[in-house]
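As a point of orientation, let us examine one representative protein, giving the amino acid sequence and backbone structure tokens.
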Amino acid sequence: MPKRYRSEEHELTGEYEHSIEPRHGPHKAGSPGGTCSRFPSRHFMVEDASCGADNLEIDGFNTFTHARCPWASTAPCRCGRHSLHIDSLIVAVDGACPGNGTPHATKSAGGVFFARGSPENLAFRVADKPGYPHTSQRAELSAAIVAIKISEKYIYNGGQWDCEDCPTPCAVAHLVIKSDSAYLVNGMTAHVEKWRQNGWRTAKGTEVKNRDLWTKLDDRVRSLYANTGVAIDFWLVPRDQNREADNLANFGLEIPGK
């Protein structure tokens, strides 16, 4: 059983025959293994995983969002939360580019959303880069890179959860990048490894578009996995489920460019 954390003010009743998991039992889960997988993994979809794909992201107590435990009770605690993994983070990202794909696309921006009221939430303008026109795809990739960069301190040093019973800080072992961009999610979960092995060329032999950003994102993910074992997975959601990051990206468009 996972180690329990102090939460006397919450309901701790269980309802399973073979794996009693409390309705509100925040606990460590460790890395699910590997990296660059599509979230939610098969563990959320098996027959015994009561909640299935519902309520996958749970608000924590320290302005962060965490992954729900696959074995959480279907009924939440009185506080409204399901059992969650305290060593996980879910970070939403989005990009914005007015006039995308036209000569009028003269600026773009990214949004990174950790949780309501989080000091880590960020809106930023994508810097101009000679030879690289602004596009929504470049903005989305830039947002993912920034989100992982911000999350690095929690991957190495913890701090996303106040672990009263932990002798050392509870470091993030599972980071989920949430996005409504199929370009980003499919690229990182289905294509990036083949691109890298083929010298950053597609199956047709053409150079991968936005290679500079793909390599930067891929290098950061692989470096963190090699150094810490953290799994960085990617979650494709409908646009209406990513509004907070979208709002930040649009706000970023108003920031003066460099």
